[in-house]
């Protein structure tokens, strides 16, 4: 409490404890500053996240809704079934080009029947309907040839620009400059909406339909991409989990401690830090050029992502195996269990929640990975759904993140909305998987 | 060690089943190449699959990448069709031949215009090729010596142009578009401005002079865009002073945010390009591996469908998207129908 100087009386304390001296004040100030820095860092991170979410949601939520035009169409038997015997195989020779004029004429008649006056030529009216409409109609007719000759009511997709009118993307000003929609078309669209012929509703096709060309942003969907991603995750799960768990059990429980196993351990940790594009190059060389697997197939994507996910799973598995206390192993060995019995009957079940969590996080990482897929032909325009596994694994498919990538490169501005919508879908999947990982950990993890 | 054995055998089984499955024949048409041709190929592939029971997979990646993969050899692991926004080079034909790809069918699908566009709210421009040469050349001949390009404003290049900083976004060298830009705009401008003649007076031979003409400055005035036109558009949105090089189809889809410049007094449109008035246009191609016809189901049907009047004709969907229809489409259709290979 007091400092004794050599050969003198104890020097009295200059300040009281209640009065802060300069040094304490400085320390307190520095602590307050540090807290402010921390708070600022957290605020910046939260702001960035909020900004990202707001921009994606505001751009992308509208892609789940789509504008449809409904009007009666007379299915002219002379055009659609020239032979007249309603045989779908013969009717297949009538291509979508014959259905187009039918749709256009029906729409012109419908506008006239509603009593709406317009100066627009028939072709400009036809442009308000999506190019997808003839294909929609053809598919409907081929699935039910008895409809030919009748007049049916059908909901057809509206053109992307007309859709943009009701989503605020296309305004009167932009329509004046836009080569693909005129202000007159915009006014007509508003009138038809007032009449109830144009509606905007939730659009399942965005999630289930395949991709569409640059001329039809309104018809583009994520179906093939979601299936492709799902197939790749199946492949990753089927390969990475058994290989990863087997490798870690061996390394952790059986392997002798020597330079070789040390080297392997270091390399696995290094592998986890390898940029993902490197795995893409590897995949191209090994799986496509050497093994001869097909391009653009989920099996190749899955194998590449397996290589990428393996280190993550091995590291997580080894950590959870190590977390099981040695007493459990020793107790099992002590009552006569073999080494393998102790591992499989006691250690592995206790480590399972940790292994599963690691696997799910690895899968989530793989789901969002784009770079390696660029090199193995997954950035492709694929309209056909892949078949059911296992054959389907070899069929061409796309993947969710590369679908985002290819949509951002399309020239029609409507694809910006689509790309943001695809990001939302991807984020929902990721949040779901991560939530599952957290849940598993909370529910089953044991602490010693 | 039974686990290790298990792992090894599982791997072996996986490898065997994988190769066995790959040995089954491919029933999809594989297309890869130019990102300029990509939207057209997508439109055709979409309509083709709507109407016929074949599968077509279209990949992007650029003309050179597409042709390189095309020339890797014959067989089910190689692509069937390469899209290209420029004609195949002699060197590529030689590579192809080395790898056994000897029969190639060249199909010209139409013409594409290259346009110069800037922000809709900015100044409008009326260019001649020499403006672009003087703005973007790395070195200019002045009084018998090559000096680094000093121009930084458009009105320094040509007094008729607005006083606006030069900021050009041009396609990167992996794009076929760049080659056309170099030859039809920069080289043309070099000749028009008399710079080429000046260089040859300085003692350069013709090849060296052409090379010097087409050397683009690297001091930040001109930016190579290796991505797609959407990236160029984003750059212009960020820098309203910028002028970008686009394909006509891309511009036509974005007329609400871009204004187009005239070249030598002609406004680019499908009509002026078809008539040949607009100077900066180039043919678009795809190349078919003739050895794959009859092996890969749907290959010939796809090619025939692509060049049919209903698709590639002047009233077809490709023209609606911005492709300038080939006036000699009938001859192209005959080439595909008769499988006429190059050199025959």
Layout of strands and helices, then pairs:
The complex is a heterodimer of chains A (448) and B (344).
Chain A: H1 22-60, E1 65-74, H2 77-80, H3 88-91, H4 96-113, H5 122-126, H6 133-143, E2 151-157, H7 160-166, H8 172-177, H9 183-195, E3 198-202, H10 205-208, H11 223-254, H12 259-272, H13 276-290, H14 298-323, H15 326-334, H16 339-367, H17 371-375, E4 380-381, H18 400-407, H19 414-444
Helix pairs in contact in A: 1-19, 4-6, 11-14, 11-16, 11-18, 12-14, 13-14, 14-16, 15-16, 16-19, 18-19
Chain B: H1 2-23, E1 28-33, H2 38-51, E2 55-59, H3 63-70, E3 81-84, H4 90-98, E4 104-119, E5 126-127, H5 129-136, E6 139-142, E7 145-148, H6 154-157, E8 168-171, H7 176-192, H8 195-201, H9 206-213, E9 222-225, H10 229-238, E10 243-247, H11 248-253, E11 258-260, E12 262-263, H12 270-274, E13 281-289, H13 299-306, H14 309-312, H15 317-321, E14 324-325, H16 329-338
Parallel strand pairs in B: 1-2, 1-3, 5-12, 8-9, 8-10
Antiparallel strand pairs in B: 3-13, 4-10, 4-11, 4-13, 4-14, 6-7
Report on the architecture of this protein.
The complex is a heterodimer of chains A (448) and B (344). With 448 residues, chain A is mainly α. Chain A is 62% helix and 5% strand. Chain A is built from 19 helices and 4 strands. Chain A has helices spanning 22-60, 77-80, 88-91, 96-113, 122-126, 133-143, 160-166, 172-177, 183-195, 205-208, 223-254, 259-272, 276-290, 298-323, 326-334, 339-367, 371-375, 400-407, 414-444, and strands at residues 65-74, 151-157, 198-202, 380-381. In chain A, helix 11 crosses helix 18 (400-407), helix 13 (276-290) crosses helix 14 and helix 16 runs antiparallel to helix 19. Chain B has 344 residues and is an alpha/beta fold. The radius of gyration of chain B is 23 Å and the shape is globular. The termini of chain B are far apart.
């Amino acid at each position: 409490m007091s400092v004794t100087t050599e050969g003198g009386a104890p020097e009295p304390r200059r300040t009281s404890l209640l009065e802060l001296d300069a040094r304490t004040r400085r320390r307190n100030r520095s602590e307050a500053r540090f807290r402010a820095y921390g708070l600022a860092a957290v605020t910046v991170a939260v702001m960035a996240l909020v900004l990202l979410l707001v921009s994606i949601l505001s751009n992308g939520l509208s892609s789940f809704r789509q504008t449809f035009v409904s009007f009666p169409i007379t299915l002219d038997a002379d055009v659609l079934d020239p032979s007249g015997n309603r045989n779908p195989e013969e009717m297949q020779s009538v291509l979508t080009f014959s259905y187009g004029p039918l749709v256009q004429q029906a729409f012109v008649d419908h506008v006239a029947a509603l009593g709406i006056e317009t100066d627009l030529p028939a072709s400009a009216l036809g442009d308000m309907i999506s190019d997808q409409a003839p294909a929609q109609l053809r598919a409907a007719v081929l699935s039910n040839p008895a409809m030919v000759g009748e007049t049916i009511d059908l909901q057809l997709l509206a053109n992307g620009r007309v859709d943009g009118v009701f989503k605020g993307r296309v305004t009167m000003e932009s329509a004046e400059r836009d080569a693909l929609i005129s202000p007159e078309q915009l006014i007509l669209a508003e009138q038809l909406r007032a009449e109830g012929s144009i509606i905007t509703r939730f659009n399942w096709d965005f999630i289930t339909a395949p991709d569409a060309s640059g001329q039809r942003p309104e018809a583009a969907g994520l179906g093939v991409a979601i299936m492709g991603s799902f197939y790749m995750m199946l492949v990753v799960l089927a390969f990475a989990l058994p290989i990863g768990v087997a490798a870690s059990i061996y390394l952790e429980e059986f392997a002798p401690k020597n330079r070789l196993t040390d080297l392997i351990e270091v390399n696995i940790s290094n592998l986890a830090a390898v940029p993902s594009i490197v795995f893409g190059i590897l995949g191209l060389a090994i799986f496509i050029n050497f093994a001869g697997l097909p391009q653009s197939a989920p099996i190749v994507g899955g194998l590449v992502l397996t290589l990428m996910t393996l280190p993550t799973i091995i590291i997580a598995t080894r950590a959870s195996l190590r977390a099981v206390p040695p007493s459990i192993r020793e107790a099992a060995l002590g009552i006569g269990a073999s080494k393998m019995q102790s591992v499989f009957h006691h250690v592995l079940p206790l480590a399972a929640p940790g292994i599963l969590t690691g696997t799910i996080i690895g899968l989530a990482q793989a789901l969002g990975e784009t770079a390696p897929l660029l090199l193995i032909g997954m950035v492709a325009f694929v309209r056909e759904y892949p078949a059911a596994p296992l054959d389907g694994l070899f069929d061409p498919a796309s993947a969710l993140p590369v679908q985002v990538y290819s949509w951002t490169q399309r020239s029609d501005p409507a694809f910006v909305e689509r790309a943001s919508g695809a990001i939302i879908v991807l984020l929902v999947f990721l949040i779901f998987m991560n939530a599952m990982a957290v849940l598993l950990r909370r529910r089953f993890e044991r602490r010693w | 060690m039974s686990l290790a054995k298990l792992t090894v055998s599982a791997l072996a089984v996986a490898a065997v089943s994988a190769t066995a499955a790959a040995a089954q024949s491919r029933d999809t048409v594989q297309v890869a190449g130019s990102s300029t041709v990509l939207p057209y190929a997508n439109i055709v592939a979409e309509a083709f699959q709507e109407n016929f029971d074949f599968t077509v997979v279209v990949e992007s990646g650029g003309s050179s990448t597409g042709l390189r993969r095309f020339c890797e050899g014959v067989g089910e692991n190689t692509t069937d069709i390469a899209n290209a926004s420029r004609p195949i080079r002699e060197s590529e034909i030689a590579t192809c031949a080395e790898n056994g790809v000897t029969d190639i069918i060249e199909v010209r699908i139409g013409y594409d215009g290259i346009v110069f566009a800037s922000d809709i709210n900015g100044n409008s421009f009326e260019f001649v090729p020499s403006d672009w040469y003087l703005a973007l050349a790395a070195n200019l001949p002045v009084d018998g010596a090559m000096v680094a390009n000093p121009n930084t404003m458009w009105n320094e290049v040509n007094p008729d142009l607005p006083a606006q900083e030069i900021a050009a976004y041009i396609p990167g060298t992996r794009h076929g578009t760049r080659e056309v830009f170099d030859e039809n705009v920069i080289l043309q401008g070099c000749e028009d401005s008399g710079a080429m003649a000046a260089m040859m007076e300085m003692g350069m031979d013709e090849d060296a002079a052409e090379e010097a003409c087409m050397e683009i400055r690297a001091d930040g005035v001109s930016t190579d865009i290796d991505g797609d036109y959407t990236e160029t558009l984003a750059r212009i949105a960020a820098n309203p002073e910028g002028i970008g090089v686009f394909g006509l189809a891309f511009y036509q889809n974005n007329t609400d945010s871009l204004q187009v410049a005239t070249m030598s007094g002609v406004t680019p449109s499908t009509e002026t390009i078809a008539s040949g008035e607009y100077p900066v246009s180039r043919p678009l191609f795809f190349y078919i591996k003739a050895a794959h016809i009859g092996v890969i189901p749907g290959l010939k049907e796809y090619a025939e469908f692509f060049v049919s009047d209903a698709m590639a004709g002047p009233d077809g969907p490709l023209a609606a998207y911005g492709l300038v229809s080939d006036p000699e489409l009938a001859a192209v259709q005959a080439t595909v129908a008769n499988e006429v290979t190059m050199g025959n």
